[in-house]
Amino acid sequence: MCGIIGYIGDKQALPFLLDGLRRLEYRGYDSSGIAVKNGDIRVHKRTGKVADLESKLPKKIEGTCGIAHTRWATHGGVTNANAHPHCSEDGKIALVHNGIIENARMLRNRLEKEGVKLRSETDSEALVHLIHREISNGAKPLTAVRRTLKRCRGTWGLCVIFEGHDKIICARNGSPLVIGVGDGENWIASDTLPLQALTQHVILLDDGVLAEVTSESVKTSRVDGRSSDSEVTTLEDDWGEAELGDYPHFMLKEIHEQPEALRQCLTGRLDLKDGNARLGGLGLSSKNLQKIPYVRFLGCGTALHAAQVGRLSIEQLARVPALAHVSSEFRHNDPVIHSEAIHFAVSQSGETADTLAAVKEIQLKGGDVRGVINVVGSTIARQCGKGCYIHSGPEQSVASTKAFSNMVAALSLFAIQIGRARSLSRAEGQRLVRSLQEVPQLVEEYLADPGPVKKVVKIVKNAKSVLFLGRGISAPVAREGALKLMEIAYIPCLAYPAGEMKHGPIALLEKGSPVVVVAPNDSLKDKTISSIHECRARGAKIILIHEAGDSIAEEADISIPVPSTDPMFTPMLTVLPLQLIAYHTALALGCDVDRPRNLAKSVTVE
Ligand code: F6R
Known about the structure:
Layout: E1 3-8, H1 13-24, E2 31-38, E3 40-47, H2 50-55, E4 65-71, E5 86-87, E6 93-98, H3 104-113, H4 124-136, H5 141-150, E7 156-162, E8 168-173, E9 178-181, E10 186-189, E11 201-204, E12 209-213, E13 218-222, E14 233-234, H6 250-256, H7 258-266, E15 270-271, E16 276-277, H8 286-291, E17 295-299, H9 301-318, E18 322-326, H10 327-330, E19 342-347, H11 353-364, E20 368-373, H12 379-384, E21 387-389, H13 402-421, H14 426-448, H15 453-460, E22 466-470, H16 474-489, E23 493-497, E24 514-518, H17 525-536, E25 541-547, E26 558-562, H18 571-588
Parallel strand pairs: 17-18, 17-19, 19-20, 20-21, 22-23, 22-24, 24-25, 25-26
Antiparallel strand pairs: 1-4, 1-10, 2-3, 2-4, 5-6, 6-7, 7-8, 8-12, 9-10, 9-11, 11-14, 12-13, 15-16
The structure holds fructose -6-phosphate (F6R).
């Protein structure tokens, strides 16, 4: 969602701000803006792409201190006035804000009664006027921001600059903010991605913390006045490149990164000798694993689908009940938490507000939650404390691809680990570990020759709707295929466990309706063939994802074979054609593949 980048140092701020904005584009946004201080503060902002903003900037913008923002509209429409930065009436203070100020209406009403002329419809603008009032009453910048935040309810990641002060005041509460520490210069950003090329040393601000950042120092304190540590963390080198390279889109690049991403996830975690998996970060001994009454997963969107795969693997290998919940529902359903159960929060970004809220609810009720997360040091990873990173490398396309495969891989590792601690034999463990180890190579083989994906595009691109079917472990894969096609090509898609089709969705089928069936060579295949016949009898066109060499191919109008693997690991292969179908269909329809409308990469509002 919204993104922030700020700079203070001895160099010109503008190049850092523009580069930072470009690196934040992946989060999804509808307007952008910058404020640079050079004596006075100059603000430039507009709706549209960062490139539109850049093309309209004056030739020279000098200044060594500045802040910038990409906005994803929540309070107020997509207009130039609602874009950030927002300024005080005298133009001497500029502010960028991520998050939602819940009591903004009341604050705005009061400001208007006091004669302040509000220029936007946003909640954020109220903050800058309140800060200005404190400054007018003689407060220093840090105090002015602190006093203002004490009057606010809600979430914020914000940066403020002031004419006459060489500093940026920033604060975090529920909306991530990271300070990149340099030598004679410092940066502030809403995530670590725009900082990667600049510094490895970062301060991850905690909720309720304020920071006064100059070119030489970072001083942190809490909004309530208590002191706060500003521990510098060194970021590990991420294996992935945050640049597009030779690919036309991040989505295609990330689809093709899956073999390497999977290797990164599996390396050092497979124990061939004992037929076991090592996930030390979970902090779970065999004794713990034996006592667990059940396992629960929380996630949204693609992460939820990966969790649904994981839960089936765990039930199968460990014979322990496992459930996967939609994070946004979980907290509101007053869940019963068993203190010996294990909960997993599954998230690529580690910032999804619904999943974070679910984690806090579990912790409040005395439950134990581990993170299965991609972004190192993200809010959910820190809130959980323990967990397992999936090591996908940076994922910048809004449509998640390589994170899905790596979540499935990480949860497969856990399924083996808990299975071995309970009833799974060493020989069976060894067979599974060997098979899992081969998956990256099989993914590579498929991507080198992906089959007739473009033929599928011809059928689905003009369809009224597309039905996706799968059974067992392939049911969540079907859901993932439907989500991908819907979110980037805007085609209505339905996904059902194949057996449910005859209980309703079959009514949609008519001559030529595309039905995508995920049917690996597992114990449920014959039942899926019956579902295929039911669809064909109504004139549907069957697009079949199946294992190479399987005679089921005869059931298809278009057959896409993927390499064979153990039934439990098929989701990492069967998902690949579905990702490619979505990508090429969106492309054929002229859609913005990496930045689909209305969506954001990291969904930080509930
Ligand atoms: C789909 C997609 C979203 C995310 C969801 C959860 O392609 O990207 O459905 O999967 O918003 O995001 P994370 O994994 O960051 O919690």
